[in-house]
Each structure stands twice: as structure tokens, then as C-alpha cells.
Amino acid sequence: MDPVTVVLILFVAALVLFATEWLRVDVTALLLLSALLLFGLTTPKDAFANFGSDTVLTIASLFILTRALLRTGVIEDMGNALARRARNAGGMARGLLSVVAGLSAFTSNTATTAVFLPLVVGLSRRAQLPPSRLLMPLAYASILGGTITVIGTTTNLVVSGALPRYHIRPLGFFELAWVGLPVALIGLAYLFFVAPRLLPEREAELAEGSQRPYLAELTVQPESVLAGQTLRDSGLGRDHGLTVVAIRQGEQLLHGPDAGRQLHSGDVLVLEGSSERLLAGKDTLGLVSKPEQKLRQVLSGTSERPGDVRLVEAVVLPRSRLLGRTLRESRFRERYGASVLALHRRNRVSERLARTRVQVGDVLLLQGPADRLSSLGEDLTVLDDLTERHPDRRKARLALLLFLGAVVIGASGLLPLGVSVLVAVALTFAFQVLTPEEGYQAIEWPVLVLVACMLTFGGAFEASGAAKVIIGVVAGVVKPLGAYGLLTALFVVTVALTQPMSNQAAALVMLPLAIGISAQLGYDPRPFIIGITVAASNSFITPLEPSCMLVFGPGRYRFFDFVRVGSGLTLVTLAASVMIIPLVWPFQP
């Protein structure tokens, strides 16, 4: 069979499978690569070389560096700092969305949305607004920011990495900012002033486990920001989502303390809140639990690494030896090698945790070595591992320094971007900011498989002559539209393709077509390359984009909600891009 016919059949079959998702996108990509090899349309050397290309390695490295920022709480702390400084809910929401857009220019859109989701939910509660009014704008802001730099999304990196095979220079680090920044600003204005008229009002629907209320006893440290403040000024409830049940000052236990009560170093606060809120408050406010202090002393004399210490939720089983005994009586830490940081019970515990008698169904928040927590016997069973959700802020500055260093060196051209981020990953592991196991788990392997396979298909698509056939047909149709019409058509088709298929696949499908058609019509291909890159990175019309999927459930959205709000944002993005792109990248070479 003619190679052109085979490639075109494979092209159509891949589009159908990508659009319908009968198979996972990475499985479809692997089948496509297998077909190319079996039909002799590519060599094993060329096919496998793309799995080790600088594009794939750069994307993998950025996944790891982003996880380091999340693991050390850098991004979360930025959001918390903004929330504390905002004067009103409206200003706080706009500030958060602006920060999200700025951060997603350098980190994963999905990761940024995931980190800020609980912050936005907390903000909506304090402002007495349904989360549905804020969560969709959160996802859209993260997507808008991704078009500002070449590392803003994996789509940008994929397009940039594919350009050399067409003898076109890769995208500069901030090249997309000429259009990405204005589009992001215009898009944010849409989210601030237009979207609120279109967004639904529905109450949040969050998983029970994520909001399970725990009771914890935390001691105010001498360096704590709470020392010397009153309860009213501390913002424990307003900013941190924690309820002060009681305060123990010396031998005095004060239940339901007055808001004017001043806090001092050494005070023990009996706090109620979700595990995330308690752990975040403990890290940022200078609070510590006595069991945790003792655990650190024990571990300081061992070879345990930070990555070996886990944080889990465990439920007390019916035949547990703990039943009817206090944690002190059962010698919990000596027996299990773990510390109880907090306890959840349907009815609030009125006594001190150390004096509370354990009941069936109690859920304990435990911290300890991984090997000990994996062998709790018949007394407890682990419900969830929260280690990844609990930032380790001890090396936050180092994580931020390594990330910024990689970005600055790569953007300045002192080293290729792939080299700078790979060196940063090596240093991240060497300084134990992140364990190699955590780093490798952070890599989204399906994305890397998709990118490598589609890069190979792009080469076969061009080498077989199939691209030339399609380009000749399409060029004749769009020639009467002129340069602006061609740019608009390519943008619209790319946006349409990103709805059923992944952004990276849509960009790689459209890239050879845009280059070939523009060249045949006598235009410089670069403005059209920029156009499909921006279009592929901005997917607003359906909730199928990963950032949108994250907020779909918590916001209780419906499919049409995204169509209603996202269609207008897409039109704004299209209009701004078509006006700006030719001013920076002229159509004529």
C-alpha cells in the first residue's frame, strides 16, 4: 500500500481514537508508533530517539521541579500570604487569580490549580460566596498564565521542541509573552467583570475525608507569630480555618476563650479543623505538638531520612488493644513508633488528648517512619496517606532557589533550558529537597509517551508525503481568506481539536499543516505557529482540560456551565491573538 495512504489512514484513526477516548491517549499514541514501525514508515532508531529527546527530558525535569515547589509549600505560602494581606473578599479573589496566572507561567497549570483550590474554597466561605463563583475562574486563570513562557505548559515545550525538525528556530523563553501576557490580562479582566454575570451559584460538594474535623493540641513556640497577639487578631478562624476549642495556660484550662485573650509562648491551643488546615497552620504559625517534638528527638538519632517519615490517617478497629485506654496508658509511641498529632471523633472530645480513652471508629492522624506505619497490626488500619499533601517547608528556600536558578539560566541562554532544569533536578535530589522516588512519581508518564510518539509521527507524516497532499488541498481552500483569515481558521480548528483530544496532540497535529500551508501561500510560518500554540494552550469551552476537571466536582458545575462562560473567554482570546500576533510576527518573511 502507498505510504501516503497508510499515513493518512493512521492519521484519521488516531484522530478518532483521540476524540472518542475509547483508549487512553498514551495507548493510542503507542499503537500509532507501533503501526509506523510495522509498516516500515520509520526506523526503530528514529522512533526511540524521541523518548530521549531534549523536549521529553525538559518536560520530565519540570514535573519534578514543580513537585519540589509543592512539596515544600512554596506555592501554598504565596497564596496564604496574599490572603492575609487582602482587605476584602473581592480584592482577595482578584489578587489570587492574578497570582495563579503568574505562577502558572512557570509551573504546571494543573498543579497550581490543585494547590490553590482549598485556598479559594476557604476564601469563598469567609466571603459567604458559593465556591462555584470562584473555582472556574481559578482554573481559567491557571490556563491563561500558561501562554506567557515556553515552560508555561507542556504544549508550548512540545511545539518548541518540534520546530527544529522543520528547520525553524525554537520558541524563545519569553517569546510567547508578546501575545500571552496581553491575552492573560484581557482574560483576567473578563474573569473579573464578565464571568461573574455568567457563573452559577451552587454550594460546594467536597469529599468527607478532606474535611474531616480533627482535634489537636499545639503549643505556641517562642518564635511563633501568635505570641503576644489576641485570639481576635490571630486570624486562626478567619484566615486559617481553625476553631479554638480551649487554651491551656499553665495549669489553667479555658474552654471557649474570649476573643480578647492574649496568647503567650508555651500556651497550649486545643484546635479543631481539617487535617490540611491543622498541618498548614502548624507549619506557618510556629506551633508544635509534643508528640511530634519527641518523634523528632527519636529520629535525630537514627538514619531515617525526611522522605521516610509518613503522615497517615488510621482508624481504630473493633478488636484493637487501644480500646478503653488512653494514648498514654497504651504507650502508643513506644508500641507503634509513631506520634498521634490529632484525633477525629463524631462527638467532639472534651478532655485532653492524652487523657482521652480510645473508641472504635476513632480516626488518628499519625506521623512516623514508613516501615512502622505499614505494620500497625490488627489495632489500626490506614485510611489515607497524607504525606504528599503536607508540605515540608524546611527546604522551601532551597527549592525556590533551584527552580528560579534553572529558569533564569535557561532563559538567559547561559545554558540550554534542558540542561539547566536537569542540573536543578540533580541538585534537588542531592540536597534531599525531594527524594528520587517522589520525583519520579511526579512525572506524568502518559504525557511523555504521547509527546515522544507524536514527534515520531510528525516526522513520518512529513517524510511520507502525506503532509504535502493535505497541505495542497487545504491551501487551495483557505487561500481566498488571506493571512488574517488563515490565522483565524487555524486558531479555530486548533481550539476545536483541543476539546476532544489532549492539547499536546492537537498542537502536534496542526503544526505541520500550519507550516506547510503558510509556506505554500508565501507567508512566514512563525505567526501561524504562535497562533496554534496559543490556541492549543487555551481550552475553556469544555471541562475536559485537567485544570477544569479539578474544579468540576467541588464547584458542582455542569457541562454547559463551561460552554457558557468559556465560549466568551475563547472569543476574547481569539480576537486578541489575531490582532496582536501579526504586529509582533509579520505575515511576510
From TrEMBL:
Q: Which PROSITE patterns match?
A: RCK_C
Cross-referenced InterPro entries = Cit_transptr-like_dom (IPR004680), DASS-Related_Transporters (IPR051679), RCK_C (IPR006037), RCK_C_sf (IPR036721)
> What GO molecular function annotations does the UniProt record carry, in alphabetical order?
monoatomic cation transmembrane transporter activity
Pfam families of this UniProt entry?
A: CitMHS (PF03600), TrkA_C (PF02080)
How does this chain sit within the bilayer?
Multi-pass membrane protein
Keyword list (alphabetical) reads: Membrane, Repeat, Transmembrane, Transmembrane helix, Transport
Q: Can you say what this protein is called? A: SLC13 family permease
